[in-house]
Amino acid sequence: MQQGAGPLAPSLTPWLADRRQINYPDRRKSTVRNDIPRLQRFLQQRFGLTTIEVRPAGKKTDMAEVYIKDEFIGTITRDDEDEETTFYFEMPILEVDFEGV
């Protein structure tokens, strides 16, 4: 036993025990790609449009792209914080998009 290690060991024991009980999300499962069919059905039902399509965003596994017909309208990202999964849909609206409205 190393000198000075004794007093630290009791204070570290509860910390180590707590760390073992934490349920860390498996980052390999934190991918939007696994949820694409479900997200597409949800958006189609929510907006009443069967032409909404959710597609993988290239090599990015944490993002998907949303299209109506073949027009890109936004992205979906996934957040697995706080033991709860949340999806964020972001739709940028450019000034040029207002032309003809």
| Helix count, DSSP H or I runs of 4 or more residues | 2
Number of strands: 4
Radius of gyration from the alpha-carbon trace, in angstroms: 22 Å
This entry's quaternary arrangement is: single chain
* N-to-C series of helices and strands: HHEEEE
- What profile does the largest beta sheet have? 4 strands, antiparallel
| Share of β-strand residues | 25-35%
Q: What's the average pLDDT?
A: 81
Helical coverage, percent range? 25-40%
Question: What strand order characterises the main sheet?
Answer: 1-2-3-4
- Report low-confidence residues grouped into runs of 5 or more: 20-28
Description:
- Helices cover 29% and strands 29% of the residues.
- The chain starts with a helix and ends in an 11-residue tail after the last strand.
- It has a 4-stranded antiparallel sheet.
- The protein has a domain at 29-98.
- The protein contains 2 helices and 4 strands; from the N terminus they run ααββββ.
- A hairpin with a 6-residue loop joins strand 3 (71-79) and strand 4 (86-90).
- With 101 residues, the protein is α+β, with helices and mostly antiparallel strands.
